[in-house]
Each structure stands twice: as structure tokens, then as C-alpha cells.
Amino acid sequence: MASKPTNDVESLAAAAASFPLLVYDHGEQPDNSQMVFSVADGSTRTFQVPELRNYRCLETPSGLVLMVDLASLQSSLWNPQTGQKIPLPAMDKPLPERCQCLLSDTVSSPDCLVLVSDLKQPQLLFCKVRGGSAWVSQSYDLGLYELPGSYSTPEKKRVIGNMAAVQGKFYFFKARDVIGVLSFAHSPEPQLEEIATFDAPLPTIKSDAPLCATMMFLLESCQELFLVCLFLLGPSFERIEDFGAYRMDFSKQQWCKLTDIGDRAFLLGPRNFATSCCAIEPGLKRGCVYYSYEILGVFDLLEGTCHIAGPTQDIPVLSREPFWMVPVLR
């Protein structure tokens, strides 16, 4: 039997204690509801979360959620575990259609930035979490995509499509084997100060079958930069040839393969979302990568295996891609 939607705050708080959660948002605003799936115990519950109604919400790897009121464009950072909100300035225009959101540091840092990266245009939107007076919009130039000569499509500017924040800087793929680094100045208002680069060849695998694509996810864990690669034989999740996790060795500027990430789990999702959390307390399996898109897959780095983990019940037609709610970093 399907669970009955509820907007009871205490019930949501009880579910929040089981973080990390996968959230399936379905229905039309403002009558949308959310099916919440606990990865740890496999249970599902359905809510009508007030903060997910009449707002555009962007989850962050830090656990906080950027909320933008659809009518007033007033913004804030919401902690789903406690219900607390940090007020931010109102925006001048709605968020881009496809974008990702990151925090440069913990919100207790006086220089912490909230950054929104447009996934279609070379445009950044950012403001200070503490004491910011306005959102700043700034474009960047990474050159043009290099297409084979047979393509007749118009030239297109490169955009940042995969990013992780580590110790106040934002790392991304400028090109296949090139890492870019965004640095911001903080006085008096934040502004993009520098885009640096360094060469770091991407990992590859030996395979008798031709690879169709490699899905790559950058993430921060314990103030270090990591990369997760899914090597695909076809366009679907079911055709994964191999997977791997790698840590950036900045002294050598190279990716080092890992088979043990300790008592941690990596969580991946749509729009290049990637984060890390402790595996022991919430009941996840240590040393695993959890990947959510159309299904939830679990990759065990120690054993080199993968399997499907759920949810098992039918999911209503979604109003947006599934997203993670993860423990908030302090």
C-alpha cells in the first residue's frame, strides 16, 4: 500500500534522522509531494515538504539546500535535518534551467561562498553566505569546444559541467586531461579572481569491448579531491564495464586509484552531483559508491562488484530528477 502524504514537520524530522535519503519529487507545484527512500534500511515514506513547494531547490554536496522563492526570488540555505534557514539576498532573475550548486566551505567560515554554475551557459552566480549584500553574476571564457571537422554545428563555448569545492577553491574539467581551478577574492564583495589549470591525465581501463562513454564525478572528501569514473559500453546504466575511485595527488598532479576509502561512502546523482558521507552511523556499507539516476546502483570498491539496491515500489512520474538529501557538514 502506498504511504499517505503528510506535511507534518515532526515526521519529516524523523525521516531526516535516517540521512542520507533519496528524494523523488512528483506532481505539479504547489501540490507536489515527495517519496523519500532510505538507502540504509530500504524503507519509503511520502511527504508534502513545505520547503519543496513554491520554491526552486538545489541540493549541495554539503547537505544544505539552496531555496529560491518562485514568486519573490528571495533565497536562503535550508538545513533539512533541523529546519533552520540562513537568509541570503534576493535574486534578480530565476535560476538557470539546468545548474548545480556548491558551497566553498562550511557555513561557519567567514569567506564561505554559495556558487551556482549554469550547465548550459558559461555563467556563474555567487554570494557570501555570511553578510553578502547581493548575488553576483559573472561570465567566464574557457574557449570553444573542439569538434571533428565533419560536424557542421555552430561553434559553442565551453561550460563547466563537473565541479567540486575543496578548501575554498572549485575544481573542474577544463578539457579531457586538464583540471581547472576557480579562485575567488573576498573583499569587499566576492569576485572571480583567477582560473588556473594543470595537466592530469584521466584514468583509463583495458577492455576488449569498445567503450561508449565514461561518466566522471568530482567530489570532496576530508578536504581532498576525488574522482569517480563509470566506464560504459552503452548509453544505459546496465552496460557498465568497470568503475573506479581515484584521489588527486597534487604533488604529482595525477589521479591515484583507490580500492579502500575507509569508513566512507560516495553518493552520486544527476547533474554531476557527488558527495561523501560517513558510512557507519547511517548504516551504509563502507567503501561503496551509491549511484542514483533511473535506478540506485551500489558499487563496492573493495569487492569490485555492483548491484541494484532499489527502491522496489513503483515511483510516480517525477517532476524533476531524483536527488540526495545528505548529512549537513558542520
UniProtKB/TrEMBL annotation:
PANTHER family: DUF295 DOMAIN-CONTAINING PROTEIN. Residues 36-294 form the KIB1-4 beta-propeller domain. Pfam families: Beta-prop_KIB1-4. This is KIB1-4 beta-propeller domain-containing protein.
